[in-house]
Design goal:
Blueprint (H helix, E strand, L loop, with lengths): L3 E3 L3 E2 L9 H17 L4 H17 L16 H14 L8 H4 L14 E2 L2 E5 L2 E5 L2 E3 L6 H13 L1
Antiparallel strand pairs: 1-6, 2-3, 4-5
Protein name: RM46 protein
InterPro entries: Ribosomal_mL46 (IPR040008), Ribosomal_mL46_N (IPR021757)
GO molecular function: structural constituent of ribosome
């Protein structure tokens, strides 16, 4: 018998997998339910109050003492600022250049999947893609054998 030690090195997904059709439908339904049952946020309440103040000002019912000496940033101004920031944002593509060129040596590919390190090793007269492995040496633990395998193949 010959014992070998190997180590499995995995790159976990860096982004989520795309949703299936059913998952998208459930997500849309849950979002609709959340919108229907949600309460106003502080920002929404502030916006409604500001709209009411503007309406009273137009109707000449606005009390100037309410805003005397205040510099006010309107909620709409904040929303415009956020909208501009959002329009400047550009999400990274889910399909990378390594995916397009089928570069199997790059870690920057298949971002939504696990990647496992495999190396081409000659076993007998065949070359096989295997986990990095080396033969166990007497006096060595299997862990140190596996670590040696990684050091051998990764440098």
């Amino acid at each position: 018998w010959r014992l070998f030690g190997a180590m499995c090195l995995v790159r976990l997904p860096r982004i989520t997998q795309p949703l299936e059709k059913e998952e998208e439908e459930v997500a849309a339904l849950m979002e609709q339910i959340e919108v229907e049952k949600s309460h106003y946020s502080d920002h929404e309440i502030r916006k409604l109050e500001e709209e009411e103040q503007l309406k009273r000002k137009k109707d000449s019912l606005y009390d100037e003492d309410d805003a005397h000496g205040k510099t006010v940033i309107m909620a709409q101004d904040l929303e415009d600022k956020w909208e501009q920031k959002f329009l400047q944002f550009k999400a990274a593509p889910r399909i990378t250049d390594a995916d397009k060129s089928n570069d199997r040596t790059s870690l920057n590919r298949k971002l939504d999947s696990n990647l496992m390190l495999l190396v081409k090793q000659k076993i007998g007269n065949q070359e096989l893609w295997l986990l990095p492995q080396v033969e166990w040496q007497p006096g060595e633990t299997l862990r140190s054998t596996a670590e040696r395998a990684m050091a051998t193949f990764l440098g």
